[in-house]
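haha ok so turns out i had the wrong file open the whole time. this is the CORRECT one, sorry everyone. sequence first:
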Amino acid sequence: MILPMHLGALHPFEQALTLILAFGPFVVLGAVIVHRRRHDAAEAASAASAEAASTEADPQRDR
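then structure:
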C-alpha cells in the first residue's frame, strides 16, 4: 500500500495552529528578553542613582 505524500490543503484553523506552534516560542523568547533587559536597566539605574546619592552625601569617600 502506498500512502499519498500530500493529504490536501490545511483548514484555516490548522494553518493558524501551525503558525503559532512554529513561531510562538520565538515570540515568547523575545518578550522574555525585552522584559529582562528593561528590568536590568531599571536595576542599574537605581543602583547608579543610589551610588550618586551616597557620593553626594560623603564627598571625601573616594579620597
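The mean pLDDT is 85.
again sry for the mixup
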